Amino acid sequence: MEMTLCRRHWMSMRRCFPLRSSYFSTIRFISFNYSPTLSSLPFPSYARSLSFSPAATLQSSISPTPSVIPGGDENIDIPMKGSRVLLKGMRYHELEKWVQSHGYRPGQALMLWKRLYGNNNWAQCNEELEGLNKDLKRMLSKHAEFKALHFKDMVTASDGTKKILFTLEDGLVIETVVIPCPRSRTTVCVSSQVGCAMNCQFCYTGRMGLKRNLSAAEIVEQAVFARRLLSHEVGNITNVVFMGMGEPLHNIENVIKAADILVDEQGLHFSPRKVTVSTSGLVPQLKRFLKESDCALAVSLNATTDEVRNWVMPINRKYNLELLLGTLREELQLKRNYKVLFEYVMLAGVNDSIEDAKRLINLVQGIPCKINLITFNPHCGSNFKPTKDEKMIEFRNIVAEAGCVVFLRPSRGDDQMAACGQLGKPGEIQAPLLKVPPKFQAVFEASA
What we know:
Blueprint: E1 3-5, H1 7-16, E2 27-29, H2 45-48, E3 67-71, E4 74-78, E5 80-81, E6 84-86, H3 92-101, H4 106-117, H5 134-143, E7 144-145, E8 150-156, E9 162-167, E10 173-181, E11 185-189, E12 193-195, E13 210-213, H6 216-234, E14 239-242, H7 252-263, E15 275-279, H8 283-292, E16 296-300, H9 306-312, H10 321-332, E17 340-346, H11 354-363, E18 369-375, H12 389-401, E19 406-409, H13 438-447
Parallel strand pairs: 1-2, 6-7, 11-14, 14-15, 15-16, 16-17, 17-18, 18-19
Antiparallel strand pairs: 3-4, 5-6, 8-9, 9-10, 10-11, 12-13
Helix pairs in contact: 3-4, 6-7, 8-10, 11-12
């Protein structure tokens, strides 16, 4: 027997029949479609043309029509993969409601959750769900999907950094990086989109343009796979950074949801302060993230004037330095003991002068922050050159002497294209290289 129910009828029937009743085994819930429009996206018009497929593909192809189940005072969207529920796309309370809708107790949902994420299980199939109720396992084999990603390949750089390639259901490929650290800290760098629409001129991923957003399940499973594949080799993975392919806050719904799953105490249990979401500076989404998430925020600054930032990071034409930094000053007043991380990629002859160091000090005044000075990692999609080590040290010292907390971050994994700004594989159609401002022409000609 199959029924299509609205929430009111469902709640009425639940009062009349036991949850385990077979009448509820084939209930089909009301669904809806969601399709964002390109006109709403916060980046320049030329970047919109680089989304190579219709607007609907900006959502994940894995869950085009999420199912809806009633959850108290709200309906809960359940991510689908075909006709199956995608388990890793749900927060715990969503998984609990879905399991209850099939007639099982909340405690059995918790047992399932722990086998997906906790106790070193990281289950990928029904056979790995040891200790679960047999009826629940049968229900899962019929209605649930465990995997959103398919392992394709893994390469190891000379410094031990590992780049994992995953194939998605639609054939697209994403890259995830695992970075071991000798101080008992290992970081997994996850992707949030296939490609990126921001077109930062120093970033290889930006050459791809935007193909589509990743679903929450596709983001979370990168961290799960990393632990499953590499924990025995690199030790406990303690940190997550959303610094792989894509602009995380351009996919804010799925990124916040994925971050919630990553920090859940009953599951993967990453510390919120060790889950860092990076952004090029999408101001409205940045404000929302700071209000809704306790995870750490990193802002890619990379210039000290609007003239330079307009060129190397075109998003600055919409959200300039004054607006971006003013927003951070205002919003961080509401968060105690919270520091934003500024990322500053050092580009030889472009943003690494003594004057830049002094301007950087003034720009971050009044903002609780740390600053990472990052070595530029060359690639065939860019004509920039890395700043020499001695000049980076001089820049660092000037900023540090002014009282700022500042670190030098050397390249990791660059010999396997696994370093910052090197991920992805541009196709035949690529994002445009922007015209070099006249004042920097000589720098580029000298390095040619």
